[in-house]
Amino acid sequence: MSTLVLLLITGVGLGALYFLVASGLSLIYGLMGVLNFAHGAFLTLGAFVAWEFSRRFGEGSWSMFLLSLLIGAIVGGVFAALTEVVLIRPLYNRHIEQVLVTVGLSLAAVAIFEGVWGTDPQYPAGPAWLSGTTGILGAQIPNDRFVTIIIALLVLAGIVLFLKKTRYGMIIRAGVENRSMVTALGIDVRKAFTLVFTLGGAAAGLGGVLASHYFGYVSPALGGSLLIFAFIVTVIGGLGSLAGAAIASVVVGVLQQLANFYWGVGDFVVIVLLAVVLLSKPTGLMGKMA
């Protein structure tokens, strides 16, 4: 029983990490129709800069850990905003060029990260409590999983409230439905779309810092490895569906943990799940592609 509890809770924690990355992908595609293959670079840069800051000014305290989360989110958001303004904005409605540009940016970013920080992994240090465990029904759950789950829930609630309750959220949703009409009303939709990219990048940067503590290291390849599963989660949940991404993240995370523990084939089982969903319901669980 304790083993099952451990696998379920850690699976939800892994799913929460996937969601932080996938939420930005889903938000950007759902509201702007952009498939951003450079999203992993936002994550990696946020994690590296947060680690660098913590290393230089003192690791191990809660204040530094929380500050590193904020720095990761800011760095990811700024990088994403610059990407949208410089590279994506001239290519709206030109999807092939968008894919080529974002793939190229992701490859270039990895090369730059390797040049600056090297190819070897770096090991961040967080508060001692994060490295400990908490007993639940006989299972010792790593504490960092609880932090990741809580932050993922806060990010989900924050994005939903922003889109539904704020002026810019309403402008973004209206611009997606009819960009020409909103522009005719004198509203600059471009600024709203840049904000969407910024939010997605901030979520990725936040996820990067948490991932560095979750896995115990940060490396130039961290964003790329997580991006693969984030895309899988986004497709399974339904491209553009934030709720679908949240549900799919938990399903994928738990299934991967169970399959890895009992059979050692977690990644394979996730790919099988992706194939089953695409064959049975090509629009994904929430059907936002329709």
UniProtKB/TrEMBL annotation:
The chain crosses the membrane at residues 6-27, 34-53, 65-87, 99-117, 146-163, 192-215, 227-254, 261-280. Its main location: membrane. It comes from the Bacteria. Keywords: Amino-acid transport, Cell membrane, Membrane, Transmembrane, Transmembrane helix, Transport. CDD domains: TM_PBP1_LivH_like. It is a multi-pass membrane protein. InterPro entries: ABC_transp_permease, BCAA_transport_permease. It is found in: Cell membrane. The keyword Nucleotide-binding does not apply. It holds the Pfam family BPD_transp_2. Belongs to the binding-protein-dependent transport system permease family. LivHM subfamily. This is Amino acid/amide ABC transporter membrane protein 1 (HAAT family). It comes from Glutamicibacter mysorens.
